[in-house]
Design goal:
The protein has 14 helices and no strands. Helices cover 64% and strands 0% of the residues. 44% of the residues are buried. The chain has 325 residues and is mainly alpha-helical.
Length: 325
């Protein structure tokens, strides 16, 4: 993928570094990262650039950058700033079952993003939403696979059962990332991997960065499972509303199919994640309950902030994007 324009000194430093051989440039120190906005555009674009080296990388950037010590030092400073802010903003909890129970309850008068898109959203809103979500959906489930070697027993078996579905159950044409690419085709978007990194809002960058942060660190395996549980448990009702929105606006069969597929699949995944993955993990490592709860809380916090940003922009007749499509 191509490197996007920088949004400040932190992301500019990463862009400049990646234009050189590893070890050529000195990146900013930890004090610079600590002084920046932990939820801001600059920090999260810089973090996204660092993380992307662990996925498909960038055009003309050597693969050896992935484990460059200087870049890892800088990335750690960015992560610490982000995590410190999250830990300050997410209430400490240990009651994982109660948190999961809460996720199963939807208010009768819900007014979130999927409700807006279903009831009054315009075609342009759907395109913006899909472009932003493509950051994750074009590599759907990839960040979660990093946790698999760190699990064992029932948790590992349950996790792989869900991931097998995410990757098409052995059929390339049913891999969820490919299905989302088909959705993008129907909406007239460019399905090229990473194409819209440069236009996504900071709230979307933070949501996307969270799962990479959790996935790449063994110490955050509990938080990654909490994040995964939040995603799977909340997915089915929202996916149904998004499918209805796409049908109402006649977005095309592939677009409708992506979310219709998730209505059924994630209803099953929710049970597997809760009763096999989460319970299996906590049976083996009960001390991870606060980490699982933190993963749930951090995901909810960032998703809520993303939803608030999208609705605020759209209801004001504005774009939710950092830059135009």
């Amino acid at each position: 993928m191509k490197r996007p324009p920088a949004r400040g000194d932190l992301s500019a430093a990463v862009v400049a570094a990646l234009e050189q051989p590893p070890g050529t440039l000195r990146l900013p120190d930890s004090r610079t990262a600590a002084a920046s906005d932990p939820y801001g555009d600059d920090l999260h674009l810089a973090l996204a650039l660092c993380y992307e080296l662990h996925y498909r990388g960038f055009d003309a950037v050597p693969d050896t950058w992935e484990w460059d010590p200087e870049l890892l030092r800088f990335r750690a400073a960015l992560e610490h700033a982000f995590l410190d802010a999250l830990r300050a903003d997410v209430p400490e909890r240990t009651d994982v079952d109660a948190l999961l129970d809460d996720l199963l309850v939807e208010p009768a008068d819900g007014d979130g993003v999927s409700h807006f898109l279903r009831d009054q959203g315009e075609y342009r809103h759907l395109r913006e939403y899909a472009a932003q979500r493509s950051l994750y959906h074009l590599k759907e489930a990839d960040p979660h696979l990093w946790v698999v070697p760190r699990l064992w027993g029932q948790a590992k078996a349950g996790m792989m059962a869900v991931e097998y579905d995410e990757f098409g159950a052995g059929r390339a044409e049913r891999v969820h990332s490919r299905l989302f690419g088909d959705l993008m085709d129907d909406l007239g978007l460019d399905r090229t991997y990473g194409r819209y990194l440069g236009v996504c809002c900071r709230q979307m960058l933070a949501v996307n960065n969270l799962m990479s942060l959790f996935g790449l660190h063994r110490v955050h395996r509990g938080a990654l499972i909490g994040h995964f549980a939040w995603v799977e448990i909340t997915s089915s009702p929202g996916s149904r509303r998004l499918a209805q929105a796409l049908e109402r606006l006649e977005a095309g069969p592939a677009a409708v199919h992506f979310y219709a597929e998730h209505v059924e699949a994630d209803a099953v995944h929710e049970q597997v994640v809760r009763h096999q993955v989460v319970k299996g993990l906590l049976r083996e490592e009960p001390a991870l309950a606060p980490d699982v709860a933190f993963g749930i809380g951090a995901t909810e916090l960032l998703e809520d902030r993303l939803g608030e940003h999208l609705l605020s922009a759209w209801q004001a007749g504005e774009s939710s994007l950092f830059a135009a499509l």
